[in-house]
Each structure stands twice: as structure tokens, then as C-alpha cells.
Design goal:
The complex is a heterodimer.
Chain A lengths: L2 E12 L2 E12 L3 E5 L6 H8 L7 E6 L2 E2 L4 H6 L1 E4 L11 H11 L4 H14 L15 H13 L5 E5 L7 H16 L3 E6 L2 H7 L2 E6 L2 E6 L1 H9 L2 E7 L5 H5 L4 E7 L2 E6 L2 H15 L3 E7 L3 H11 L3
Parallel strand pairs in A: 3-8, 3-9, 6-7, 7-8
Antiparallel strand pairs in A: 1-2, 1-4, 4-5, 9-10, 11-13, 11-14, 12-13
Helix pairs in contact in A: 3-4, 3-5, 5-6
Chain B lengths: L5 H20 L2 H21 L5 H17 L3 H11 L1 H6 L5 H29 L7 H22 L7 H17 L12 H7 L3 H14 L6 H26 L5
Helix pairs in contact in B: 1-6, 2-3, 3-6, 3-10, 4-8, 6-7, 6-11, 7-10, 7-11, 10-11
The chains are: A alpha/beta, B mainly alpha.
Bound molecules: adenosine-5'-diphosphate and magnesium ion (MG).
């Protein structure tokens, strides 16, 4: 076995929304696979189908060689999940939550206790183990949920935006634990809308947009495509025609908010020079001119453009 | 260990039951409701209808206590957990929907039995003779399983609003009490009333309880027991089948 996850034509439709649109990909054993996309792209829906929480409308997923629909228990026994929304039992203590997981995964009690203590210590929660989860901060809850997902030493771990909205300390703790787990051979499927996080952590990244995978590659290769993109923000003292701007050499895309134009460009130098000429031709004065680092949106724009629909 | 095997799934269902008891049953308000509701109902009965014999009243009380307690909490568990997103956690764990439902049933069965024993003790304290203890014990056990299946059946509509489910279950539970020979003895019922009563498992349980305390019964006792077993099997299978289908809609 060398593929931990094998997805074929997976599709989910909610009413008229195609949340996930015939996606296929595979995740190799031992790799950290990033699933990157903006809000509403279909990351959570995909994760829920892969972890057997909701059934797909069509297509299939093999998780650790078990079909998630036909052998759900066998598949689930092999992986751990950190879902998007925190969901430990608030009325139980951290320890009781962990012991419940131990029972649900069929671990012997002594084994579960040892492992729970280790995990709580690693995640800085040992002192709070007998406190109800109700009283936990968001970061502490998320660390506990990670511990719950790891209790049975899964070979495969799903995480749905595990660090979004967390304090820096919790987020660092989680990311460093993920690195250690990966070193020990755990396969990790991680969804995120944070490009930097994906870039730092992942062996390969799939970029999903509107339910479709628009790019799938090693981060360095994706970055190469993205790093060529920059944004320039410019404003003039009078109205100028938008299509005139869009036709300038090196301009990829033009947007307008208020009196400012956001221009996505491939070659900053070239565009700035042509902007100067353009404003002279229009008899306009440049009021402000800023260059901005490439944003995720630019990257998506670029990547969607490169993949034939 | 085969995680998908029957015995392993039963063990995991027991973990669900312990979780339920801890979170939903061993709570001040739930326990107080469970203990005081039958007591108050009993007092209301006692004052309202002096012409009915005490033994008849206590039998009805035991029947109601078990029916209401075994169906009190379980219909709301899935909506609560759906709202709190803990159900999503369970759905991604290696446990089948059937085992989760079974675990919820175990918890409500145990709760129902516990509270019902209290009402039996009240009856004994009032000086009622218990003529057939083993029959009563068997009846309570079977009926508790049966009623907990009803409780889970009431939870089938996939809403995550507990109050909706509680309203719906009251609408179904109260009429069931009226057709089950608790307020009106089966002997005094019109034929259409008896026909309705035959469809309520509570009828057979009340009959067993009356037999245990007074020695009189309407249906043959083995018939009561057989009816309860049949209802339990059909309702349990039905609720598991339906929950398997509606579970994804809760996510
Ligand atoms: N339970 C649901 N019912 C209806 N629509 C849904 C449901 N879950 C997700 N969607 C829709 O599916 C799309 C993808 O959502 P989601 O998978 O949550 O995206 P992401 O996790 O990438 O932010 C969105 O348009 C969302 O509104
Ligand atoms: Mg999401």
C-alpha cells in the first residue's frame, strides 16, 4: 500500500450548490497533503465525505484501503479527525473526553490512560485534565481535540483548518506537533485557507475553488507560479477608462474600489512604466501608487486561468 | 479485535451509554423531574379519583413512571449533540449508527428502571402487597427496553432543535397514555378503545403491573410478555433502520 487516500470523482450537491464537483486525487502514505482554498470552496464538505460523516452523491474514496462507504468502521478505526468546529463534550472533563475516545476506538483502559497523559503533557493541558471543557479557551479546546484525534495512534490524520482563529501559542504547538507526527510517518490531510501555513508544512498542495481542484503540486512549484504575480494599487485625479488600463502590457486583471484601481500584474516594472505613459496620454495625474505582495486571491485567479475549464 | 464485529460494537455502545448517563441523566433537574413527576402524578390521581382502588392507581403510576422516564431524555440527545457538533465527532468514530442508537437506548432503559423502582417502593410503602415480583421485574425490564426504543423513534426527524422534538414527542406520548388502560380500566373501554389499546405497548405493561399487584389481568400474562418482546424487537429494528438513513441529514 502506498496510497493512504484515493479519491475518485467525489461529488456532493446541496440543493442547487455543487459543493464538491467530481474531484479525484490521491494522498501518498507519509506525506502532508494540503487542501487549500478560499471560504466556501468545498474543503469541509470534502473532509466530511472522506471521514464518513456525510455520504457523497457520487464517486468513491478509499481510505487506508477501505471504502469509506462500504467499510466505514474499518476505515475509521485507522484515522483520526480534527473537524472544523470544536466538538469535545463541554460537560465532560478533558480526561473523560479522552477516555470516551479510548472506549470508542476499543483501546484497553491502561493503554488509553498512558497515551492520554502523554498527549496532555505534550499539548500543555495536563494540569487542566480534570476541568470541564466548558471552561476551556478556544485554543485549549482545539489542542484537546487534537489529543482526542491522536489517542489511538492513527496512521492518518485529517485536520480541517486546525489553526484558524487560534492564539499564536496554540497554533505553534499544533503545527510543531504535526511536524513531529509527520517525522514519525503519520500521513496528514490538512485543509487551510492560509497559503503560508500550507507552504511551510505540506509536501503537496491541492488548490480547490468552487468545488474543483484547480492545481495540485509541490508548494515550491505553485509558489513559482504565484510569485510571478503582484498587485499594484493606483489612483488618479480624474476618471480614466477601465479597458484602457486592462489593455496595458503586463496587466493580468483590473478591479476598482472607490477611487482606487487594483491591478494584478506579472511584471511590476513594465506596468509601472506603462502606467506613467498612460496617465500622461490621458492627461491624468497619479495621486497614489502602491505595490502589494501577491495575495491568495491573485494566486487563485492565476491558477484558475491556467487550468482549462 | 475486529472493530466492526458485533461484540466490539456492543462494547462501544456501552461507552455511549455511560457518556449519556454522565452528561444527560445524572443532572439535578433531570433526576428531580424523574422522581417528582411520578409522585405528583400519583397525588393528583389519588385526590382526583377516590372511587378507584389504590392497587389500580399504583399500577397506572408505575406504568406511567416507566413510560415517561424511559422516553424523557433520549429524543433530545441527537438534536442536542447535532447542535453541539459532538454528533459529528461520533460520526467519524469507528462505531455504527446502530451501536450509537443502542447505547442511547441502554442509558434510557437504565434510567427508566431506576426511577420506576422508586415508584414500586412507594407502592410497597403504602402497604400494597407485591404478589408476583418476578413477573413485575421481567415486565419492567422488557417494557424499559421497549419504551427506550420508542424514545429513540421519536428522535428520528432530523432536526437539531431540541424543543421541536420535545413538542412532537409530547404530542405522541400523552395520547398513548390515555389509550393504554391507565386512567380507564381495559374492562370498561368501548371496543374501539380496546382496539386502540392493543397497538400501545404500554397497555401490556400496565396489565402486567396490575397482575403483579392485584392478581387480576385482562390479557393472559404470557401474551403480555410476548407482545412486549415483539414490540421491542420491531421498534428497535425500526428505529435503528430509520436513524441510519437520517443521520447524514443531521450533519
Ligand atoms: N450542510 C450544507 N447544506 C447546504 N449547503 C452547504 C452545506 N455545507 C456546505 N454547503 C455549501 O457548500 C459549499 C462548500 O462549503 P464548505 O465545504 O463548508 O467550504 P469550505 O470548508 O471550503 O469553506 C458552500 O457553498 C456552502 O454554502
Ligand atoms: Mg470549511
Amino acid at each position: 500500500m502506498s496510497e493512504a487516500i484515493e479519491v475518485t470523482d467525489l461529488t456532493k450537491i446541496f440543493g442547487t450548490t455543487v459543493a464538491v464537483d467530481h474531484i479525484s486525487f490521491s494522498v501518498k502514505e507519509g506525506e502532508i497533503f494540503g487542501f487549500l482554498g478560499p471560504n466556501g470552496a468545498g474543503k469541509t464538505t470534502t473532509t466530511r465525505m472522506l471521514t464518513g460523516v456525510i455520504p457523497p452523491d457520487s464517486g468513491s474514496a478509499l481510505i487506508l484501503d477501505h471504502d469509506i462507504q462500504h467499510q466505514p468502521v474499518m476505515a475509521k478505526q485507522g484515522f483520526g479527525v480534527v473537524p472544523e468546529t470544536s466538538n469535545a463534550y463541554a460537560d465532560l472533563t478533558a480526561w473523560q473526553n479522552l477516555m470516551l475516545m479510548g472506549d470508542l476506538y476499543g483501546l484497553p483502559h491502561a493503554h488509553a490512560s498512558d497515551r492520554a497523559s502523554d498527549l496532555l503533557k505534550t499539548l500543555g493541558l495536563l494540569e487542566r485534565r480534570d476541568q470541564k471543557v466548558q471552561a476551556y479557551s478556544k485554543g485549549m479546546k482545539q489542542r484537546l481535540i487534537l489529543a482526542m484525534a491522536l489517542l489511538h495512534k492513527p496512521g492518518l490524520l485529517f485536520l480541517d483548518e486546525p489553526t484558524s482563529g487560534l492564539d499564536v501559542q496554540s497554533s505553534q504547538m499544533i503545527l510543531s506537533l504535526l511536524r513531529d507526527l509527520s517525522q514519525e510517518g503519520t500521513t496528514i490531510f490538512l485543509t487551510t485557507h492560509n497559503m503560508e501555513e500550507a507552504n511551510r508544512l505540506c509536501n503537496r498542495i491541492a488548490i480547490i475553488r468552487s468545488g474543483k481542484i484547480v492545481a495540485l503540486d509541490a508548494p515550491e512549484k505553485l509558489k513559482a507560479a504565484i510569485d510571478r504575480l503582484h498587485r499594484i494599487e493606483v489612483s488618479f485625479d480624474r476618471d480614466i477608462p477601465a479597458n484602457g488600463l486592462a489593455r496595458l502590457p503586463g496587466v493580468v486583471h483590473v478591479d476598482r474600489t472607490g477611487d482606487k484601481w487594483q491591478i494584478t500584474v506579472e511584471d511590476r516594472d513594465l506596468v509601472i512604466r506603462s502606467l506613467v505613459t498612460f496617465s500622461q496620454q490621458q492627461g491624468a495625474v497619479i495621486v497614489t501608487l502602491n505595490t502589494l505582495a501577491p495575495s491568495l486571491d491573485d494566486a487563485f485567479l492565476r491558477l484558475t486561468r491556467e487550468v482549462p475549464p | 479485535m475486529n472493530p466492526a464485529g458485533f461484540s466490539e460494537q456492543v462494547r462501544r455502545a456501552w461507552a455511549i451509554a455511560r457518556k449519556d448517563i454522565r452528561i444527560y441523566y445524572i443532572k439535578g433537574p433531570v433526576l428531580i423531574f424523574g422522581i417528582f413527576m411520578p409522585v405528583f402524578l400519583f397525588l393528583a390521581f389519588l385526590m382526583g379519583s377516590r372511587q378507584l382502588p389504590l392497587a389500580f392507581l399504583v399500577s397506572g403510576l408505575v406504568g406511567m413512571a416507566l413510560f415517561f422516564t424511559a422516553t424523557a431524555v433520549s429524543p433530545a440527545i441527537f438534536p442536542w449533540e447535532g447542535q453541539a457538533k459532538t454528533l459529528e465527532r461520533l460520526a467519524s468514530c469507528p462505531i455504527t449508527v446502530e451501536a450509537i442508537v443502542f447505547g442511547d437506548m441502554i442509558a434510557s432503559t437504565l434510567f427508566g428502571i431506576g426511577i420506576t423502582l422508586i415508584t414500586v417502593i412507594i407502592g410497597l410503602a403504602l402497604g400494597l402487597p407485591l404478589l408476583h415480583a418476578i413477573t413485575l421485574g421481567t415486565g419492567i425490564l422488557l417494557a424499559a427496553c421497549c419504551f427506550s426504543a420508542i424514545g429513540m423513534l421519536l428522535a428520528v426527524p432530523p432536526t437539531n432543535t431540541p424543543s421541536n422534538i420535545m413538542m412532537l414527542s409530547s404530542l405522541i406520548k400523552f395520547p398513548m397514555v390515555f389509550i393504554s388502560g391507565i386512567f380507564i380500566p381495559l374492562e370498561q373501554m368501548p371496543p374501539w378503545g380496546l382496539a386502540l389499546a392493543a397497538f400501545s405497548p404500554l397497555t401490556y405493561f400496565t396489565d402486567i403491573v396490575r397482575y403483579s399487584f392485584t392478581g387480576t389481568n385482562y390479557f393472559p400474562v404470557p401474551g403480555d410478555v410476548a407482545a412486549l418482546i415483539l414490540f421491542t424487537i420491531v421498534l428497535t429494528a425500526g428505529t435503528m433502520y430509520l436513524h441510519k438513513r437520517t443521520m447524514p441529514k443531521r450533519m
